[in-house]
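Lab manual, section 2.4: Encoding a predicted structure.

Procedure: take the sequence of the chain (196 residues), apply the prediction step described in section 2.3, and record the output as structure tokens. A sample record is shown.
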Amino acid sequence: GMCVTKIEDDGCLRLRRNGGVDPRVLPAHEVIVKAEGGDLFGVVGAKPPHLLTAAEREKAVTMDSLYVDVGYDAATVRRLVHVGDAVVFKAPLVELQNGFIAGKTLDNRESVASLLACAEALDRLRASAQAVFVASVQEEIGGGGARRGVRKRLFVQACIFALLWCFRVRIPAQTKEITAQSLCGPLLKRKGSIHL
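Recorded output:
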């Protein structure tokens, strides 16, 4: 997701990304500002193409060039929104053909759902061992959450299991689909490199 870094004089919001948000996909994207008084709907804007210089057209979109317009004047926005408020994608799950689905952060959502299913199954076993489940963050920018878990010595047993969500990605003009070990669905990996 993202967060608000500044409220401009016209009421538009400037953003900072939290994690692996790609600025190239943001223009015209609908978002939700998670304000204290309730959700505010907005749209991500950028300088219109017909106003760009030739040099600007050659450059990639950056977070600094983007803003969110929630439709209110600056005084109203300053009353409702604060620097640091979260900004998330308004992207519902979409059903595609042939049983496929599309949506934002499916890898994270499905991983946590699979962890919960594993925890419920282990609970039914009534085993005497203790199981620790950790959902870490920031895998796109260095795995800061996983490193913190290791530093806190959450993973102290000889057998360490990490849950990864393997999914199929189709990219036009690629000679083959990109997959994790050519599998789809949850994959349990013993002593994965993410823990080293």
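Check your result against the sample. The chain is about 20% helix and 25% strand.
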